[in-house]
């Protein structure tokens, strides 16, 4: 009875509606409800007896007896509720039948007296006065008309009152049935009907093209999209979660019934069904594809459980065929790369796009990301693909691949695994091994043009979630930032990555936004002197140079990387002010030199590749003119930072011509890391450390309500001189030595120049 609904009460019924109501069916319904209640009560007795009659020993016997009574009690409660519902139906039948019969009898009585009753219960005089014995215009004729008019009026009122009574009784009846229905919904939820048998039946009916009943649709919807909070939470946190065996069997049977079907046939299963049917089927496949889905008996989800056609589409190598020259729609010949089952890749994307966007940790999403990477690599030279009658031009191919990655990238766990290689071997058939860097290179080799929404979804969360505080979110960003940094810094993949900003500027920008919050991690600064430690692995200085070299081949990515690197150095100076024993000056120098040398290499690559384009589009390293100029976005200070410098600290703001002239000059890049900004950051960090309140007290003009103010310091020469005096007094009182910062900074610069991969540890 789970999911039953009460009858919908009618408004005041018309005469035709009363005549059409088949109230006798309520008697049949009452009998069936009574029989069902008896059957459930009998089933409860059988379940109780089946448990208690087994040979239990010791504590097991006590537990079995308690379980038996609990089961019997649940069955009995449902049976009692059904009995009460049956009584409500019987009562409703009695009320409605009496009122309906009264209405019909009064209508017959009116008709016998030569009155008619219209559909709204208005009584109309149908007496044939013309053939009556009375003389026209006689007193008797007038009196008769008046008498019959009064009768009609009275009968209209009585009939309409009875009709209103029927409506009121029907409303009360509907409320009573709904009350019992809701109670049964709680006692016997739809989920209790979910099992392998109903799953197999639904799958068979879909395959046969039969329309699902409303009840079957509801079961399918609940089983695939109405997961309980614990299940969805566990999956979103990458934890195994146990679901009832019946629920798992339902999903497995749905999946098995899709075996042997092509993607086109799977899409067609929802034709003629409700709009949500495709959503339910796609969600079922994604859900059974989650390896974290378990049962107490040991069943487990994953790619092995998904329909065989989808499994082979996700795990097979689709790029083994050779391509050829073919004419496009305009008759111009181009080379196309043949991708096996290309039409099914498209249809799989359409299918999974209909599913739940919130499901996390599915092998479906892992497999789709992997396959797109391999297609991306295979088509990197031609930009065109064909297969199974489908031919895609560059924009069409990039749209398909981007859309697929958008869907897969909604699953951050799958995106993390694609980047790191964790749990990805299941996406390879015949015992194959997944290599994460090869698949990252598959994406970076391709020219995506402006179709980068899918790439954005796959990688942007790494930077967006840099300040995450929940343990699992921190784990995801830590793993992804470490792997992406290692890939971009790898010498093995440099030939591809050094042209990244040239081939796909948008991807270079996406990567820059993903990794810049971790530049401090890459030089080992996080965890020192109060800088939060996100657990991201260090890079060698040579690796970090290659990160800058790869991303700085696009001007926007270069502006992001170089400006954020400068902010990181200011942040290190701030924390150095509070703890001068930490080796932050050295780390800052390392970061600056890696940026400088990597940028120089990037410019050389661009000059070699696109000299004519580069003459019009130079690398620019512009300071951000907002509150975030001095420090990284994820840095948190109390009190809040001031609006920082609105111009370059040294020299005038560079123009486009300046960038054109100086783009190969490492000194210009190095000037982003201004000593004045470092000194300000050191004194700021020092002044905000407890015990150093003397700075504000003795130099109040350097402060505003939020702390040491960059704007005030640089508003006139007098305050700049006062700042210098405060910094000098800081050194005299045992605070950090600015010269020590410079020495450590220079040590980091020289170590990066000299030691390469060894760096400074």
List the helices and strands and how they pair.
Layout: H1 15-20, H2 24-52, H3 58-112, E1 115-117, E2 123-125, H4 139-187, H5 196-207, H6 214-225, H7 229-236, E3 241-242, H8 245-257, H9 263-268, H10 276-288, E4 293-294, H11 308-315, E5 324-327, E6 333-338, H12 342-353, H13 363-378, E7 385-387, E8 390-392, H14 394-409, H15 412-420, H16 436-445, H17 453-464, H18 471-488, H19 494-497, H20 500-503, H21 505-515, H22 519-522, H23 541-551, H24 555-578, H25 584-609, H26 611-614, H27 656-662, H28 666-670, H29 675-687, H30 694-698, E9 703-704, E10 707-708, H31 710-713, H32 717-732, H33 738-755
Parallel strand pairs: 3-4, 6-7
Antiparallel strand pairs: 1-2, 5-6, 7-8, 9-10
Helix pairs in contact: 2-3, 3-4, 5-8, 6-10, 8-10, 12-14, 13-14, 13-15, 13-16, 14-17, 15-16, 15-18, 17-21, 21-24, 23-25, 24-25, 24-29, 25-33, 29-32
What are the key terms here?
761 residues, mainly alpha, four-stranded mixed beta sheet, 33 helices, elongated, disordered C terminus
Tell the overall outline: elongated
Straight-line distance between termini: 69 Å
What can be said about the biggest beta sheet? 4 strands, mixed
By DSSP (H or I, 4+ residues per run), the number of helices equals 33
Strand order, main sheet: write it out: 5-6-7-8
The amount of beta strand, in percent, is: under 5%
Q: Number of DSSP strands?
A: 10
Mean pLDDT: 85
Low-pLDDT parts are 1-6, 612-629, 636-666, 755-761
Secondary-structure content class: mainly alpha
What is the percent of helical residues?
55-70%
Q: What is the radius of gyration?
A: 39 Å
Biased composition (Basic and acidic residues): 660-671
Region (Disordered): 655-674
Protein name: TPR repeat domain-containing protein
InterPro entries: TPR_rep_actino
């Amino acid at each position: 009875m789970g999911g039953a609904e009460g009858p919908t009460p009618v408004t005041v019924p018309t005469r035709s509606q009363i005549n059409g109501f088949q109230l006798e069916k309520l008697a049949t319904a009452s009998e069936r409800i009574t029989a069902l209640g008896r059957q459930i009560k009998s089933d409860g007795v059988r379940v109780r007896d089946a448990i208690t009659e087994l040979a239990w020993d010791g504590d097991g016997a006590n537990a079995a007896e308690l379980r038996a009574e609990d089961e019997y009690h649940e069955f009995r409660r449902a049976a009692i509720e059904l009995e009460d519902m049956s009584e409500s139906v019987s009562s409703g039948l009695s009320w409605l039948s009496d009122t309906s019969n009264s209405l019909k009898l009064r209508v017959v009585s009116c008709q016998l007296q030569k009155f008619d009753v219209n559909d709204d219960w208005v009584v109309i005089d149908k007496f044939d006065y013309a053939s009556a014995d009375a003389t026209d215009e006689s007193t008797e004729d007038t009196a008769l008309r008046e008498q019959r008019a009064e009768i009609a009026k009275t009968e209209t009122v009585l009939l309409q009152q009875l009709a209103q009574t029927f409506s009121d009784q029907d409303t009360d009846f509907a409320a009573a049935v709904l009350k019992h229905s809701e109670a049964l919904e709680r006692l016997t939820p739809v989920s209790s009907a979910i099992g392998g048998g109903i799953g197999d039946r639904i799958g068979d009916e879909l395959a046969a093209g039969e329309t699902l009943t409303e009840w079957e649709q509801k079961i399918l919807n609940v089983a695939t999209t109405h997961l309980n909070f614990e299940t969805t939470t566990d999956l979103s946190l990458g934890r195994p979660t146990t679901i009832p065996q019946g629920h798992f069997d339902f999903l497995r049977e749905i999946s098995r019934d899709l075996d042997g079907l092509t993607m086109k046939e799977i899409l067609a299963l929802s034709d003629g069904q409700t709009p949500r049917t495709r959503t339910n089927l796609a969600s079922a496949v994604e859900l059974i594809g989650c390896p974290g889905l378990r049962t107490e008996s040991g069943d487990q989800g994953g790619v092995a459980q998904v329909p065989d056609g989808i499994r082979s589409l996700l795990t097979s190598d689709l790029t083994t065929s050779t391509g050829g020259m073919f004419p496009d729609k305009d008759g111009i010949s181009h080379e196309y790369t043949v991708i096996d089952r290309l039409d099914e890749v498209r249809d799989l994307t359409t299918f999974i796009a209909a599913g739940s966007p919130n499901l996390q940790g599915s092998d479906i999403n892992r497999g789709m990301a992997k396959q797109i990477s391999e297609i991306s690599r295979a088509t990197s030279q031609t930009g065109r693909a064909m297969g199974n009658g489908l031919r895609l031009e560059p924009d069409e191919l990039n749209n398909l691949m981007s859309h697929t990655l958008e869907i897969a990238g909604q699953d951050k766990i799958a995106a993390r695994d694609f980047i790191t290689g964790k749990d990805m071997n299941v996406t390879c058939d015949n015992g194959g091994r997944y290599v994460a860097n090869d698949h990252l290179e598959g994406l970076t080799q391709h020219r995506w043009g402006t179709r980068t929404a899918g790439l954005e979804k796959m990688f942007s969360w790494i930077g967006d979630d840099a300040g995450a505080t929940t343990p699992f979110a921190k784990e995801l960003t830590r793993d992804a930032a470490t792997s992406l940094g290692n890939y971009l810094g790898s010498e093995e993949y440099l030939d591809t990555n050094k042209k990244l900003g040239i081939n796909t500027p948008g991807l270079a920008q996406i990567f820059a936004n993903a990794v810049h919050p971790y530049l401090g991690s890459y030089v080992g600064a996080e965890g020192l002197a109060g800088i939060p430690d996100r657990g991201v692995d260090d890079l060698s200085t040579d690796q970090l140079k290659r990160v800058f070299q790869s991303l700085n081949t696009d001007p926007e990515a270069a502006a992001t990387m170089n400006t954020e690197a400068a902010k990181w150095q200011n942040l290190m100076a701030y924390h150095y002010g509070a703890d001068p024993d930490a080796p932050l000056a050295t780390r800052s120098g390392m970061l600056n030199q890696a940026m400088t040398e990597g940028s120089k290499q990037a410019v050389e690559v661009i000059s070699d590749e696109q000299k004519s384009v580069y003459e019009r589009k130079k690398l620019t390293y512009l300071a951000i003119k907002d509150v975030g100029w001095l420090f990284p976005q994820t840095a948190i200070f109390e009190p809040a930072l001031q609006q920082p410098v609105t111009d370059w600290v040294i020299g005038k703001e560079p123009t486009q011509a300046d960038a054109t002239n100086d783009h190969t000059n490492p000194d210009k890049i190095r000037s982003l890391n201004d000593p004045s900004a470092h000194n300000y950051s050191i004194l700021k960090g020092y002044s905000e450390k407890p015990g150093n309140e003397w700075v504000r007290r003795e130099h109040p003009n350097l402060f505003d309500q939020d702390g040491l103010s960059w704007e005030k310091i640089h508003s006139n020469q007098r305050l700049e001189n006062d700042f210098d005096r405060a910094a000098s007094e800081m050194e005299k009182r045992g605070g950090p030595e600015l010269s020590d910062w410079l020495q450590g900074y220079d040590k980091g610069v020289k170590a990066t120049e000299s030691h390469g991969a060894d760096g400074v540890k």
